[in-house]
Each structure stands twice: as structure tokens, then as C-alpha cells.
Amino acid sequence: MPKPSRAAAVSPTALYTGAVWARNGLSHPAFATLEGHLMFQAARPALALARALGGPTLEGLLLSRHRVIDQQLHAAIKAGRVTQVIEIAAGLSPRGWRFVKHYGPRIRYIEADLPGMAARKRALLTRLGHHGDRHRVVDIDAFAEAGPMSLAAIADTLDPTQGTAIITEGLINYFPVDAVTGLWSRMATTLSRFPNGLYLSDLHIGGENRNPAVRAFVQALSVFVRGRVHLHFSSADEAVQAIESAGFSSAKLLRPSDLAKDWPDCRDPAARLVRVIVAHTESPRAA
Ligand SMILES: C[S@@+](CC[C@H](N)C(=O)[O-])C[C@H]1O[C@@H](n2cnc3c(N)ncnc32)[C@H](O)[C@@H]1O
Asked: Which atom of ligand 1 is nearest to the CA of 18?
């Protein structure tokens, strides 16, 4: 299990992403914290320079992955395949709030994060009148293998007859490969209990992040999150194989840049540096 100190170091990045979602009209202003605003201002010169040079920007990276995960989740809900969502490491992401506002009682959404961040999100949603049976925030340690803060325990509170999705955004690349494949395997086991298990996540691939400008970008990201950004797989095929070996019946890695004609955010060069995992589990057999 990764050290708790490593996990805690990742938490402040949620304040920054919270500011990005709010500044781009994806969120409620309540999700934008003062700390996030200050972090955004501190990073602004680097962002402006990258933009002026036509290079990848952190904002473009965040927005492009966020759009694609949204798009895949909307498609699964609209097709009737998914009505329950567990978003792990939700931080100050507005996705749960937006989806519950949009779909109302048709879905049930659980946001999960380490206790400190979860308490913050719970207080925010309560203030917005959004915390209730269909939209909850719970404590999780994504790397807990058992116990009340494990994924399995949280999934026990859901309806086993309903299609279910698990989302991670901005989590996987901050942890070493063994921790990640262990998490994928627990996710596959959990989702196999439900019909139409779906997993959505961002993922960075080593072979797609190699040129010097991109390496500098990854270095800057590592400094920003006060730790190493792990590039676990050298190719998309290798990543797909690892996801399927963890127990998913199928997996593919979408490129946000392929949606450039639909989403201006996906035109940022950073949209070529990130992938979105779309993985499925087999439905449980009828008894
Ligand atoms: C980069 S932020 C991403 C937040 C959100 N998904 C977004 O995109 O705005 C990373 C999040 O991972 C959470 N986190 C770190 N370690 C975790 C763990 N072991 N279990 C659950 N969440 C964790 C942090 O608290 C933080 O909210």
C-alpha cells in the first residue's frame, strides 16, 4: 500500500483542479477555494508561456481528460447501462454535482476521497443542498484491501442489480505500478458484482510522453504534485493488457485529441499526452 504521506501530498492538487473546473464554467463557484485560486495564479505565467509557444498546457490536459470522461459517462447513462457511479479521488471535481443535477433520481452518485478531502466536499455539497441518499460523499483509501474505507465496503451499499461505473481522475499516475494494478484488480472484482461494470480513468503512457518538451512538462507536473509522476506503461497495448490481466473483460484507451472537432479543449497539444481508459467487466451470470 502506498505511504499515506504520498497520498496526502496529492490532495492539494485537487484545490488547483477545483479552480480550473470553476474558471471554465464546469462547476459551482462554491467549489473554487482560495487556496486553489492562489495556486492557479502562481501557475499562470507558466501557462501563458506554454500557450504562447504553442506547447501543452496543464489546463488543456485537465479539461480534455475531464470532457472525455464526462462524454463516456453520459453515453453509458443515456443508453441505460449505468445508473450508479463511484468516483474515487473525486476531490473538488464538480462531476457528481453536475450529473446529479442533470439526471436527478435516475442515478445514484457516490464521491469518495481520503477523509480530509471528503469532509470538505461533504460540507460543500450540504451547503448546496446536494448531500442525500442519492448523492453521497464517503471516506475511502483507494489502496485499502479491506475494511470500512475499502472500495468493496462502499460498493456493498449499492444496488447489485444496477449497472455501475467507477471513475478515477487524476489519481493513477501518482502511484507506483503495483499499487495501480492492485487497485484495478479490486475494481474489476467489485464491478463484476454488477451488470455492465464500467471503469473510466485518465492515464499517461510513457511512449507518448518522451520528447524533451513533454518531459519538461511531466517534470513540472511532478514538482507541482511534490512527487514523481509514474509512467507505468510504455505503450497503449501494454496498458490495455495490464487492465485486462487485472480482470476487466475489455479495455480501450481513447485519445482526447480525437475529439478536437467537438471540444475546443481537446485541441490543446496536451490532449495528445493523455488517454482515457474505458474498460468493462462481464456481467454476473443469472443464477
Ligand atoms: C489531482 S486530485 C484530483 C481530484 C479530482 N479527481 C479532479 O480531477 O479534480 C487527486 C485526488 O486524489 C485524492 N487521493 C490521493 N490519495 C488517495 C487515496 N489513497 N484514496 C483516495 N483518494 C486519494 C486526493 O485527496 C485528491 O482529491
From this structure: 9
User: Would residue 273 count as lying in a domain?
Assistant: yes
What CA–CA distances, in Å, run from 1 to 47, 92, 147, 190, 212?
A: 34, 24, 14, 18, 32
Provide the pLDDT for residue 5: 47
Residue 286 counted as domain residue: no
CATH number of the domain residue 158 falls in: 3.40.50.150
Residues 149 and 153: their CA atoms lie apart, in Å, by 7
Taking the centre of ligand 1 as the mean of its atom positions, its distance from the CA of residue 122, in whole angstroms, is: 15
Among the ranges given (61-70, 137-146, 210-219), the one the predictor scored with the smallest mean pLDDT = 210-219
Q: Is residue 237 part of a domain?
A: yes
Range of the domain at 38: 4-280
pLDDT, one tens digit per residue, over 203-259 is 999 888 777 766 776 777 677 666 678 888 999 999 999 999 999 999 999 999 999
For 158, what's the count of Cα atoms within 13 Å in the CB-facing half-sphere? Answer: 31
Residue 101 lies in a domain: yes
107 in contact with ligand 1, CB cutoff 6 A: no
